[in-house]
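Subject: sequence -> structure tokens, single chain

Hey, anyone have a minute? Need the predicted structure for the following. Not urgent.
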Amino acid sequence: MSKSTDIRLVGATSRTEHFDYRAPIKFGGRALRDVTLLDVTVDVETRDGRRAQGFGSMPMSNIWGWPTRNVDTDATLAAMLELGHCLSREAAGYRGAGHPLEITHDLAASHERIADEITTAVGLPERMPRLAQLVVASPIEAAIHDAYGKALGQNSYNVLGPEYANRDLAAYLTEEFVGEYLDRYTLRVPKPSMPLYHLIGALDPLTDADVATRINDGYPETLPEWIAADGLTHMKIKLNGDDLEWDVDRVVSIDGVAAEAQAARGCQTWFYSADFNERCANVEYVLAFLAEVGRRAPRAFQRLQYIEQPTSRDLRANPENRMHEAAKIKPVVIDEALVDFESLVLSREQGYSGVALKACKGQSGALVMGAAAQKYKMFLCVQDLTCPGFSFLHSASLSARIPTVAAIEGNARQYCPVANRGWEDRFPTMFKITDGTLGTAVLDGPGLGF
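Reply:
Had a minute. Here:
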């Protein structure tokens, strides 16, 4: 099967950008102080001769995608960047034609082989994880989807139905999805506005007493300052996962500081999420955490919307880490563990009740996993990767087009605002926050929407 709207790739180029953070962010036991972006440009042509250029950009977060103690972080980043340039060249040489879902599916077949060639050539002692490969490929996928929509003069989320795609979702999932397409699981127009989820990192000061030396760069530095400046109503709390007393104290302290700041501006309703970044040893830790927060700060417990990836991302190697009991209390979402449909199915078997989608795992994969999660009636959220500029708008467009996603996480404005320069003026409703919400109605243009 083929359609006149099918595209072929006629060129692809890649480059990198580097930015320092204004303040470090800690996750997975490590502090991150800078970011390298992989930017990809793709040129396409439809079967009937229409041409367009698409763009994609994503942080190459090797500490998140490849968290190893066996390889130096400079070496893992270098390998991921080399893979990005190789995959761009591979895309430029692709000779097939089709819908972006089909093209990216075909291209993904070579990711592991090329990654293995790179790590072998430089003598790394371990293979590049699947998650890191997805991160590297994500700007290429974004650029292909962006170019496809622009070639057709339409938003990329509006060209996902049977009149455009040659294969239904069963080709990527199971027979349950025969005859179904992504237009069934996405919106034709973006939600007009969405709440912003603000990150409270483990190193972030809550009050002036926590600030050793102020940065004094014009941005807020304490939690009350951020709440007052941005009108925050949603806050994501990074926790250690291996120190129950610290984790509970952190939530109780945050709730106390937030309550005072919210009262000062007359806000009565706000929410939290808790992210352990896989560091909990077992579900018993999560249950103890929930019980103790409920005992010491019942209102904070009520405000807690969901728990994110509390235990190891390697679900198959840790079958004892079942989340059924915790998921009866609060939604427990899979994040780092979600790399394909098989991992989604396994997470459900192990008691996870929700899915965290990420643009950094690829536009095609995020859309398909979002469809499966909706089919299975799972809790859905879209998580950030400290994405600045284009990559943040990409993540936000995904959130605004999936019906059951309620909020957008965006923390580059906190840690790396320099990388948002230029984008802030073009999309002020997405970068200049005053009432805790993002004006996502502007994400309705051709391609990915901006």
